[in-house]
Sequence to fold (279 residues):
Amino acid sequence: MQSKTIMIVGLGLIGGSIAKALAAFTPHRVLGMDLDPEVLDQAVACGAIERPGYVEDLAQTDILWLCLYPQAAVEFVRANGSALKDGCIVTDACGIKNAVCPQLKALSEELGFVFVGGHPMAGKERNGFEVSEATLFRGASYLLVPCGAPRWAAECMRELALQMGFGQVVETTPEHHDEMIAYTSQLPHALACAYVLSPRCLGHKGYSAGSYRDVSRVARINETLWTELFLENREALTRELSTLVENLQEIQTALQEQDGEKLKELLRRGREVKESLGE
Fold:
C-alpha cells in the first residue's frame, strides 16, 4: 500500500494504540487530534504521531480514523466533514454500528467522502493514552463494516488492519455486528457489574482465585461510554439479558427443587457447548 496520511481523532486506549501500531508497523504518516494537549505532547514524544493535526489538515488526509464515543464521532464529521477531500476514507472504532453507520453513510453521500465502518476487537480494563500500545491488536479480530462502500475502500482498510497486526478481518453488517457484540462484549460487561454488586464481593479476598478474576475482570468499566453503548444497542442487549436470566432461573429452580439430575443436565449442556467450540 502506498504511503498515506492518516488522521486519528481521539488518542485514548484504542486511538493511541492505532496510532502506535501505524507508526511502528506501516509506512504511513500519522497525525493526531485530542482535546488534551498533554496527550498530544506524549504522542509526539513517543513517536505515535508525527505532529498534532488540525482541521486545516483534513484537506490532505487520506484516512480519517474516528476513535471517539459513538455520537461524538458523528458530530465531529457533521462539523468538519466539509473540509475533507473527495474520496477520503472515514472510518471509526465504535463498539456499536446501527446507531452510527446510517448517519455517517448519509454524511458521506452528502459531503463526498467514503465511509467504511470498523471495530477493533481488543482492549484493556484501563483507559487512556498512557496504557495504549502498538501490539494491542496482535492476533486480534478486526470487524469491517463496509456499509456499501466501494470495494477498493474496504480492501484498503482490510490491508491496513493486517499491516497493524490484526490476526483476521471479519466482514459484517451493522445489524449482525450489533447482535453479536451484544452477546460477546456487552453482556459480559453487564454480568460482571451485576456480579460485583453482591455484598459478598467486599469480602472476597482470601476466598477467590481464577473464577472470581475471570468473571469480575471487565467490571472495571468506563460507565459513561458503556451507558451510551448499552442504550444505543438496547434491543439486542435486552434479548441477551433475557436469555441469560432464563438460563440462570433454570439453574435456580433445579437448586430449589433439589433436582440433581436437572442440574447435572444443565451443567453438562454448558460444558458440551464450550468444548464443541474447541476453546
